[in-house]
């Protein structure tokens, strides 16, 4: 029983985090988990949405999308269909919640950050790559604000935690870390886990779809995920230093 | 430290499952978890969506919605806004996946069942009530098909598992089962768990949003949820007998 | 020649008006005309739409919708289709106009009331049941405002008339009151009449579609409708006392 | 008490029906009721909508719209807004029903006719002018089909009735025929009546909005409307001869 | 080699510009290029779009549309489809840019003019007819503003140039001016040219689609177009005097 | 008078064409004109749109889009807005027409190619870069089809011309080739020219917007554009060899 790319069950794919990939955004990171390639940009604007004005609090939100041919066969554009699909909505909301878990919105002040995560190439794990890359883009945007004296507190107070995310699943009865696409479609159980650098959980989403899973399978997957997130946190730390 | 309605941490709200609440659908269940009230109907149609034709397999899908004044303040209708929000999409997909986990789509044959879950009154836990009620409506629809000789196998083979769902959270540092709305908004962590009657997991979705949670908190919540789902499974069994 | 449910031509179906059916809205009435079941809620908000601000006048509007399986076969949700159909628009506008005919918008002050009429089960006459129930929900919302000293005048001045509505048609050559669905589809002529408790008309909408109708048929239908509305007005009065 | 244009209460505005106003459509009529100017075109296509195929029956439908500056101030285009308003829906449906009342859809065979009624200039009564003009355009389209041997029966059998429509209202306490815009906004009651050339009713739609109306007012309006429709039927007959 | 209507290659179709075709708009021109018939109205409103407020500058924009049966076969309404097509967008933008080239937006002050160009009948060249007619409607709207003392400068300063437009193409190897529909579909190259009365260019849009074109063909088309626009400018001048 | 990046008036920015930038599509090219960076992918599908079936002819179409933060400030996603803007429509149509000019759709057979041009970073000239890159992606897709014996003729017959495109404008009175963003916003005249490798024109689109341009300015721009396209054609040839 070997993985398609010969990895060990507990092994991540090669991870690359390229900062300043594009020149306009306040934060811009190309994140790669193997062949999965996501461009994460952080856009800062002064002010907050109407419902939040006068609160003294900032806002962080995310939008996830795929280029039409990021996948093996082409998907119609959601702009052409005139509506955003459920999967896109779901992932955008997950990324937004995850990133808000690591920032002190009061210390951010009435500034908004939009994290755009556009999948340029998909090979499984796009949402977890997006969260991992978006954290680095957010860190750059926070530094950008700090350099312009637009924060009330130190960047390390504003961004008081780091978050990283990884997928994990049970494939052919074996718990495996960081599924590629071929494994993802073959998995009985699929789970996405978002952790802080301390190993606390931000989000845990496990689904059996056709199948179900036992408590011991759940425990095995959580263990793999926590270790994988720790590696990703370290990669984030290194690239941001 | 007491709960708003005086329950113990591990106690469900009163659960009511009223079958045949409306007369047209093939299955129709009003489910109540305390003041949360969801009308779950199962609509059977012959045939399946285009992408599934000729597969010999059936299809089960779900749509979740709220009446505009199911909540304390009125929400604009999604039909009027012209688009379905991310939360609605997310919950509809969760209900659909959960119910597909308990049915043998091959044994269903090329029949489709749509599970409509309309929240008439909301007091927390609407998605878990919806899953719990939709299972009963689906069981009635499967019987309806069986009575008309439109199934290839016995109803107990077609519907080979039961599913039930409950919310759980950490409120004021205490893990609690089946949160009402007041607890939901105060929770540091919020989790929705879908289980089979055997205690296996179908879905586990935990989120910290502003906060994070430790492995021991996760374990405490899972334990409460499994026990709660077992009670709900029993209630489903009783009402279907 | 007998009616499907054995009624006399001039006889209403059993009418039930259940106040406070749900707990959140300022007015909440479940209205039943036989098997037709509509939940009418009144939602009060301070202020009025932009185009009316500063006028000192309030606003009352209505939205009608059907649950997807309120009918014998399932209808796609308008939220999923992304647009509201002509029939829904037409009925929402009719309900809004009818209710505005019974309220003094100046005496209401700059408050808005939205009347949501959601058909839980349909067996003909849903729009007339909706108007009849919405009047009671509106009366409760006016009392709610009065109890909070938010009205400029007495509730009986604000709500200076009552309105009720009923359908009437010519079926198999016979004028009949309050058509059920089976009669509705068989009718040559179909008419919806909205009256005040004084027997004045608020709306008269008669249509032949495939057929046409003479002046004497029109007169016979109007007579039945006025008598039916008088009964409904009395039922409203009783339940509001 | 005089009308803005000096007419007597029972007097129509000058009516003009110009056939073949444009060259492409199978029927094309510019109808004018005073300053109200509506272009009615009839477009014939072979075949019927999917839900009607194989029935041997034809289909007639209508679409009503206003140019953005047909009115005293400009209205945004519904194409730009991305949705059709309730009023447009309501009127399109009324025109369609009215025209279907005069045609034998079986004798039409599986042909479709779309009646487009575009208001080029509005001064009250646009929907009644549209019905009156659309009838003439439909008659021309039926002749066009007959000339090409595409009808099963004689044109006079296919189009077995004529329909015409007029508005009527109570203005300053006086029942008046064919209201211009200035009268329409001042009316306590407003009614649209569609009649056949025999004086039977196809549609009767009366509304009080802010006000209500008595049976005697209703009778007075119906009388004016029937006489007005008779004049319009005669004008249609003359222009089609 | 003759043209379908016997014209010489360098000959325009009969051009008619009818001012005040409708009574409500501040400018209203029916423009005819042969059988192509476009109603151009200019609607003035005080104030400018939000993004332009406080600039002291006015705004001119245009919307182009076709009646569904302006063409030989019926096109579905864009309002019914719920979206505006690419061709409509493209032409609306072209008309807007062209008209803004002839007006001094600073001298217009914070007033807006919307130019609605609705094609009542199409026989090729609808966009160039629309530009030519819209200029006359705009001139009337500027006079209307001037008569009400709402301009900062003289009308001739506000509208400091005139613009006219014509199509030109290569059909059967021959460069031709002002293509009718039959020529348009047969053309290898199709070009729309917008000129000022001085013979300067405002827009040049040439497209080969299936074919390509040489520099000498381009030059021949430009020459025809400049001469054609000069004739149209003269027609505008005459009708505005 | 110098250009922002020190180029001569007739000088292109550095051009890079990177083939096989992503792994899934049949053709995939990252094109860079200086800091403008567009990912062009070609997606092949068997069969053609419904309206073209049975014609024996293939189809080529294009979709252009920008990532939200390709630009200096963030633009809302068209998928979120629910509609595609006029500019996007216009450019998509231009790219599609341009690429269809270089392919023999009959020789392509009933295959479809969609060219997706997604702007990852924008610094002026995105549409011309997109056309230039899309040609190379299309060439790769044609080779892909040829390698699988799915073409009726040799690739060089199917793709019988090459196309390239460049922008040109008059800035501060000087005609310049390949405008960057800073020049684009300062230009009096802006022109996009699409040429074949033979120097024939496929599209010429010049616009003055606020300004106008003379024949001699037009000639100067055309000359620059033809020379620029020749250089780009050569770059395409080199990278495809």
UniProtKB/TrEMBL annotation, chains A, B, C, D, E, F:
GO molecular function: 3'-5'-RNA exonuclease activity; tRNA binding; tRNA nucleotidyltransferase activity
GO biological process per UniProt: rRNA 3'-end processing; rRNA catabolic process; tRNA processing
EC numbers for this chain: 2.7.7.56
Catalytic activity line of the entry: tRNA(n+1) + phosphate = tRNA(n) + a ribonucleoside 5'-diphosphate
Residues engaged in binding phosphate: 87, 125-127
Enzyme class, first EC level, given as a word: transferase
Listed InterPro entries: ExoRNase_PH_dom1, ExoRNase_PH_dom2, ExoRNase_PH_dom2_sf, PNPase/RNase_PH_dom_sf, Ribosomal_Su5_D2-typ_SF, RNase_PH, RNase_PH_bac-type, RNase_PH_CS
UniProt keywords, alphabetically: Nucleotidyltransferase, RNA-binding, rRNA processing, Transferase, tRNA processing, tRNA-binding
UniProt xrefs under PANTHER family: EXOSOME COMPLEX COMPONENT, EXOSOME COMPLEX COMPONENT RRP41
Function, as annotated: Phosphorolytic 3'-5' exoribonuclease that plays an important role in tRNA 3'-end maturation. Removes nucleotide residues following the 3'-CCA terminus of tRNAs; can also add nucleotides to the ends of RNA molecules by using nucleoside diphosphates as substrates, but this may not be physiologically important. Probably plays a role in initiation of 16S rRNA degradation (leading to ribosome degradation) during starvation.
Family: Belongs to the RNase PH family.
Name of the protein described by the UniProt record: Ribonuclease PH
Source organism per UniProt: Natronosporangium hydrolyticum
